[in-house]
Design a protein that fits this description.
The protein is an alpha+beta fold. It folds into two domains: 106 residues, no CATH class; 40 residues, no CATH class. It is built from three helices and six strands, in the order βββαβββαα. The strands form two sheets. The protein has a four-stranded mixed beta sheet with strand order 4-5-3-6. The protein has a two-stranded antiparallel ribbon with strand order 1-2. Strand 4 and strand 5 form a beta hairpin. The termini are far apart. 8% of the residues are buried.
Length: 151
């Protein structure tokens, strides 16, 4: 058996279902492990504002509850972070595992960052995305930042 988390879907009857219909559910089994910190990188503004250094452990609010994090690196800035207090950036899989171990709901994904040849948008990409999805390139973000008078 692999050390990776495994998931399986089960059908079961829940107490007061309508007309005894089965309910769908998912059971995720995780090995018992001590609460670990989530490794993150932090912006300089976050580090300075919280008097932190690389290697420090702190708690941050993500998706409601507090999540213990370990600062593994500091960066001057990060492209999607515009808050004056800075931010931490976490690996999604590590963060979701931490949430699962604390019996919390998964964090919704609001952005996907993809590396493409030449930094351009692949032909036909936008047509295959869900309604309301925005595609932005590094060049577009740079132009928007250059036009922003706050910079």
């Amino acid at each position: 058996m692999s050390a990776r988390a495994q998931a399986a879907t089960f059908r079961f009857i829940v107490g007061n279902t309508i007309a005894g219909e089965p309910a769908d559910g998912q059971l995720i089994l995780l090995p018992k492990a001590p609460q670990a910190t989530v490794p993150v990188i932090a912006t300089k503004a976050f580090m300075d504002g919280n008097d932190l250094a690389v290697g420090d452990v702190t708690s941050v609010t993500m998706n409601g509850p507090q999540v213990p994090v370990r600062i593994v690196a500091e960066v001057p800035s990060f492209p999607a972070v515009s808050a004056p207090g800075g931010a931490v950036i976490a690996d999604l899989a590590s963060l979701q595992e931490s949430f699962a171990r604390q019996l919390m709901s998964p964090m919704a994904v609001s952005q996907w960052w993809l590396a493409t040849t030449g930094g351009g948008v692949p032909t036909g990409l936008a047509a295959g995305l869900p309604s309301g999805t925005a595609v932005t390139t590094v060049a577009q973000r740079g132009a928007a930042a250059a036009a922003d008078e706050r910079w």
